[in-house]
Amino acid sequence: MPHVDDDIVAFAEVAHDAERVVDDGIATFVCKILVRVVFAIFEICKHVLTEDPLKKGYVSNYARSSFAEDVAETGGRLINLTEAEWEQLYARAGTDGGAKLRRKHDILKKWLKDSYGVDSDRWSEIYHRRVSQLDSLDWESLDD
Q1: pLDDT at position 93, please?
Q2: Spatial separation of the C-alpha atoms in residues 137 and 133, rounded to whole Å
Q3: How far apart are CA 4 and CA 106, in angstroms?
Q4: Crossing angle of helices 120-132/83-116, nearest 10°?
């Protein structure tokens, strides 16, 4: 995720520039501390974000941010990925990551079915059918 690193670097550069323009005193001290903290966070994030999330059992780096985002990111893919694409994810994730992803996939499918009567396989079929029809839709009219 290069854009995340870029954002962190940009933030650090702004903090560093602020350090140079602020008068001596408490503000300079705070800016210096802020710059050090930002660069420490950057080093931590650089290490974490360069690890392949699939190998850790996550569908994306964003899914790693919280349990809710893990459910949301994985759940969204229940609909927009085909079974073949899921199998590719499992394979790319390796033995441990693939097993975690498969378990999350199965838990979400069961939860949606048992709690809400949602057949995620059927929704996925509908989604893919509709996506395949996008080129043939009349985008100028709202009529059916």
Answers
A1: 95
A2: 7
A3: 30
A4: 130
